[in-house]
């Protein structure tokens, strides 16, 4: 028995040493975008091969156990985060611009397919594109599609999506201005999810920068109300939900910080500093907690993913975005190291991805979008 325990302990130590060595090797070049170029391009190659396929194939990549609605949501978010990553890559590495434009166009076509629209139809009882002149919210679908098109236009895409881009933004602007507090629900009968609203505001801000400030007034009004009316009294962070503003989630707060970088740098930086103050955990690995006021050693959340030793999987991933944007090198490196510990990179034939992408492809797309975050001007 003692001999077996010694063998088991020795094996565990060897595996830990091997893992530590691999993590050090895999993350050794991180810090400067030029140093990360090969890894970034390899990860983009993998995502393109998994996302730029038929709509039904993409939906089949989503876990079947989460149900049809969340399969559709995750597929759309995978599309939008992949487009964000490809837009960033075109800005960071201009020689990839033409490829990014072409692939983003392919992904926009997938997002506009009836297969991808179905998740929103299920909840609203109306096809979002057929109801664009109507009164129902559809904010989740409209905002992500408009955000994708804004990236396409940002890097020089042609005019083929201009009409739908304007229609989406006009519809969102009208619904937001007509709502009681400038917020509209993702789904009927549910709370307002602030990160979902922020995607819409980002899309309106991007459109306005590209088209003579058409919706700038709405963006400014929303941001000013956010700064004064939708702030958690204990932390100073934007709330996660309205009107149920008592529950603050690290995953939502991190995503809010990321989206704010597209809109208001100073507000985004203030929110990021508060996020670190209340949610950053540095031991045993660096990451962001899901709950700032209580412990959760092991849990599961459909939005946050697994919560392990307090750390939020998606919150930690989303926080890489503002850490990258604000050149917070120490935190960025720590978070990417944690991602490597949890995910383990595999590389073959010019493609790289975390093993966890086999379970949640959306996580791979999020991480690439976050680690390549750069200013869209």
Plain-language structure description:
The protein is mainly alpha-helical and 377 residues long. The chain has a domain at 37-221 and 362-377. Helices cover 62% and strands 7% of the residues. It has helices spanning 2-27, 33-51, 55-61, 67-92, 97-111, 114-124, 139-154, 162-178, 194-210, 216-229, 250-260, 265-279, 313-325, 329-343, 361-371, and strands spanning 192-193, 241-242, 280-281, 287-288, 298-301, 305-308, 311-312, 345-348, 351-354. The strands form 4 sheets. The protein has a 3-stranded antiparallel sheet. Helix 5 (97-111) packs antiparallel against helix 7 (139-154) and helix 9 (194-210) packs antiparallel against helix 10. The longest helix is centred in the N-terminal third of the chain and has 26 residues, at 2-27. The protein is globular, with a radius of gyration of 21 Å.
Largest sheet: 3 strands, antiparallel
Taking all Cα atoms into account, the compactness measure Rg is 21 Å
* Percent in strands: 5-15%
What is the β-strand count? 9
Work out the helix count: 15
Rounded average pLDDT: 91
Structural class label: mainly alpha
What strand line-up does the widest sheet have? 5-6-7
The percent range for helix content is: 55-70%
Q: Give the overall shape.
A: globular
Q: Measure the end-to-end span.
A: 65 Å
The unreliable regions are 1-26
Listing every helix as H and every strand as E from the N terminus to the C terminus, the arrangement reads: HHHHHHHHEHHEHHEEEEEHHEEH
């Amino acid at each position: 028995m003692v001999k077996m325990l010694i063998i088991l302990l020795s094996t565990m130590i060897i595996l830990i040493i091997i893992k530590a060595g691999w993590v050090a090797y895999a993350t050794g070049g991180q810090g400067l975008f030029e140093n990360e170029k090969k890894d970034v391009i390899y990860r983009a190659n993998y995502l393109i091969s998994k996302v730029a396929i038929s709509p039904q194939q993409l939906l089949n990549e989503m876990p079947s156990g989460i149900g049809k609605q969340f399969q559709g949501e995750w597929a759309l978010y995978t599309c939008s985060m992949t487009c964000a990553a490809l837009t960033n890559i075109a800005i960071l590495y201009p020689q990839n611009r033409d490829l990014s434009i072409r692939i983003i166009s392919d992904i926009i076509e997938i997002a506009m397919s009836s297969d991808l629209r179905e998740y929103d139809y299920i909840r609203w009882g109306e096809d979002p594109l057929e109801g664009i002149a109507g009164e129902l919210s559809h904010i989740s679908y409209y905002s992500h599609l408009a955000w994708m098109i804004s990236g396409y236009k940002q890097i020089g895409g042609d005019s083929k999506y201009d009409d739908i881009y304007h229609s989406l933004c006009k519809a969102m602007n009208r619904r937001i201005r007509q709502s009681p507090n400038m917020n509209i629900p993702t789904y009927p009968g549910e709370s307002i999810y602030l990160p979902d609203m922020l995607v819409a505001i980002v899309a309106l801000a991007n459109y306005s920068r590209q088209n003579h400030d058409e919706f700038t007034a709405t963006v400014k009004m929303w941001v000013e109300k956010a700064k004064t009316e939708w702030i958690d009294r204990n932390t100073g962070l934007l709330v996660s939900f309205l009107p149920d503003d008592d529950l603050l989630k690290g995953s939502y707060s991190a995503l809010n910080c990321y989206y704010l970088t597209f809109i208001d740098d100073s507000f985004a930086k203030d929110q990021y500093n508060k996020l670190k103050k209340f949610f950053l955990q540095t031991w045993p690995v660096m990451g962001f907690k899901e709950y700032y006021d209580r412990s959760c050693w092991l849990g599961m959340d459909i939005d946050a993913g697994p919560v392990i030793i307090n750390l939020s999987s998606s919150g930690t991933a989303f926080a890489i975005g503002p850490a990258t944007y604000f050149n917070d090198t120490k935190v960025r490196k720590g978070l990417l190291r944690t991602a490597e510990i949890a995910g383990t990179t595999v590389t073959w034939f010019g493609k790289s991805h975390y093993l966890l992408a086999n379970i949640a492809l959306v996580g791979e797309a999020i991480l690439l979008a976050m680690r390549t975050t750069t200013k869209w001007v």
